[in-house]
Amino acid sequence: MKMTFRWFGENSDVVTLKQIRQIPGMTGLMGFLDYKAAGEVWTEEEIKRYVDGVHAAGLECEVIESVNVHEDIKLGLPTRDDYIENYRITIRNLAKYGVKVIVYNFMPVFDWLRTDLARVIPEDGSNSLYFDERELGEMGPVEIVRRTAEGCNGFSLPGWEPERLAELEATLAQYQGVTPDQLRENYKYFLDGIIPTCEEVGVSMACHPDDPAWPIFGLPRIAHCQDDFDKILALHDSPCNGLCLCTGSLGSNPDNDIPAMIRRYGAMGRIHCLHIRNVKQLGYHHFREAAHLSSAGDLDLFEIVKAMYETCPDVYVRPDHGRMIWDETGRPGYGLYDRALGATYLNGLWEAIDKMARSR
Ligand SMILES: [Mn+2]
User: Fold this and answer.
1) What is the CATH number of the domain that holds 220?
2) What is the pLDDT of residue 154?
3) CA of 34 to the centre of ligand 1 (A)
4) φ and ψ at 244, to 5 degrees?
5) pTM
6) Is pLDDT at 162 greater than 70 in this prediction?
7) What average pLDDT is seen over the chain?
8) Domain of residue 186, residue span
9) What confidence score (pLDDT) does residue 110 get?
């Protein structure tokens, strides 16, 4: 397990690299250029500047997140070939600076969705991201976007970049009538276009699951359960076509057996990284994000780390969204304190599992 942390860059994050470096056991980042629009080439110069800064702080930068896939690729429009070529260039550029894993998703329009970015947890007064599908039904897509932009404390949230959402209604209309099978066909076209480049330069693609783990607003969503992932991995059979297993996203649906999924895809060598967080179920399609500790939510973090230990022990991991605690303010989900606690807890589980395994 290589413990990493998400960081948005010095102009876009209140958390500093120095603070990240001081978290025990932290080896590197899951890095991110938050100003890049979907479809744009990530140039060598900007990658070098970012990676050099990370290295100077004593951290590695072998995983990059959110090289977003342009909607034209997901929709299968004729312009997709240009965007796929841009994606190939970005893969090559990232590989030159030591990046080994790219996290992305193939979700139409909405990267992730919550109905409240700072719902107070009554038991302890902290707050976390929250979702209640009944609230969403009343809101509709345009209202949820407006609220998300308002609630993000001035930061653009990953997946909710303003330029991506400016033409929201037009984009939603384009997806009308697109079936899950058609979306998968377009996905295959994308993978067939980029995976040979990945194989050539030694980069693995890691598909992030739908969040929450079910269809929303009638949009096709094809990455939220084991059956979906079996199909995605079969679209282009290569070790470079893999998964970013996000326990919080998948855990929003209690039907997902996450330790079993880790074992399945870990044994296949197809998990390239994990996002680990806990979820508290509050009802049907109704949950909030919880502290990492197993007893704080409904996921068994011990079983999750054990499955990882036994099937994909060298994988990159990061503590995912944390709560906002100790009066910290910042990007919803991406404060320093609770994520640092999460990393420490995961490292503790790992040490215990490792020592128990060795003493047998
Ligand atoms: Mn995630």
Assistant:
1) 3.20.20.150
2) 63
3) 16
4) -105, 105
5) 0.95
6) no
7) 93
8) 2-359
9) 81
Could you confirm whether 320 is annotated as catalytic?
yes
State the distance from the centre of ligand 1 to the C-alpha of 35, rounded, in angstroms.
19
How many domains are contained in the chain?
A: 1
Reply yes or no on whether the pLDDT at 160 is more than 70: no
State yes or no: is 292 an active-site residue.
no
Distance 307 CA to ligand 1 centre (A): 18
Question: pLDDT digit string (tens) for 331-353?
Answer: 899 999 999 999 999 999 999 99
